[in-house]
Amino acid sequence: MEIVPVIDLMGGDVVHARRGERQAYRPLSSPLCRGSAPADVVAGYLRVYPFTTVYIADLDAIMGKGDSGPIIAELRRGFPHMAFWVDNGLSSLDGCRHWLQRDLGDLVLGTEAQADTNAIDGLATEVTADRIILSLDFKDGQFLGPIQLRDQPQLWPQRLIAMTLSRVGSDTGPDFALLDHLKTQAPGKNIFAAGGVRGGEDLVELHRRGISGVLVASALHAGRIGEREIAAVRN
């Protein structure tokens, strides 16, 4: 099972995400790094474990207040062997194509940003299709986005994120019922859990249920997930 650390970018800083309430996010304070600068946070993660992928939520872009592209490009230069998954709220087919041409990483399309299925449909037949990840976004038990994207798994790319926003930073545990449902709905897809992971026991349970990977932040910063817990589900 792959462990993917998360950085949430806002105003040039990495912020502490909690329950999807973005207006309340504040710059990260963590024992893993000396400050909230993105490069420092990524370096802090790498002192915990040799991660190969980092998920980036470009919150400024998602909220229509800016673009963290230059910061992500700097991270690409500073960590050339690292893969980046980037959610920046894109929804138009042309916008997705343009972003992929910038070669900043793989593109995460969040269902909360989609008005229809056009971007997913259009990208599915292009040479960059393997660089697309779909984030199925949920908050307080409600699906965020077009119902067609929830109910038509034939539209889904190979990699899926089950994003339970109301559990992010909450230490309430993953939404195992949702994950089991998605496993049944889309057998053979790679499903990544996001939101609520508390520690090593949750990793083991996700692994037991056949989840391909998990996005984590709070549990890493709090020291509840470290090299030993990661190795238990990687070996």
What labels would you give this structure?
alpha/beta; 10 helices; eight-stranded parallel barrel; TIM Barrel; globular; 235 residues
In short:
Helix content is 32%, strand content 24%. It is an alpha/beta fold and 235 residues long. It has an eight-stranded parallel β-barrel, surrounded by six helices.
Can you walk through the features of this model?
The protein is an alpha/beta fold. It has a single domain, classed as Alpha-Beta Barrel (TIM Barrel), CATH 3.20.20.70. Helices cover 32% and strands 24% of the residues. The protein is built from 10 helices and 11 strands. Strands 1-4-5-6-7-9-10-11 form an 8-stranded parallel β-barrel, surrounded by 6 helices. Helix 8 runs parallel beside helix 10. The radius of gyration is 16 Å and the shape is globular. The model has no long low-confidence stretch (mean pLDDT 92).
